[in-house]
Give the backbone structure.
Amino acid sequence: MERFPQPLKAQLPIQGERAELLGGFMFQDSEHGLVQVPAGFNTDFASVKPLRSIAWILLALSLVVGWFWPEAGAFIGSLGYGALALYASIVGYGNAAAVIHDYLYSTGQLARKAADAVFYRALRSSGVARWRAWLMWCGVRLGGRWRYNRK
């Protein structure tokens, strides 16, 4: 059995941030077995928009601070460009894995750490490079606590 035995079919949002699954979706995880996501589930895929916002805020802040303290402005600008580079390296990857992860987070079916591990394995099995999968896994480990099992 393939890890993702069915194609991902989702209705992209016209307005808003979430997409709705048009059909059921599943992933065969090596440790936790079959994870099934029902049709109609809403997902935002990989939630990386906050990272983009942080990058732009840092870049704008660097301009303001740079007028008064050029060294600090340069440092803040470097952080902004770093955040933008990080955003660019992960945006658009791993939508199938992100759907599985969003479902596990919304249901609380697995502990958060286990759900994050499933996410990493799903990323790798869908062809996402190891370094990129690791970055995405770090992102959910660092920032996912606020979204786990919140409806």
Q: What stands out?
A: The chain has five helices and five strands. Residues 39 and 123 are 21 Å apart (CA to CA). Helices lie at 49-68, 70-90, 95-107, 112-125, 130-143.
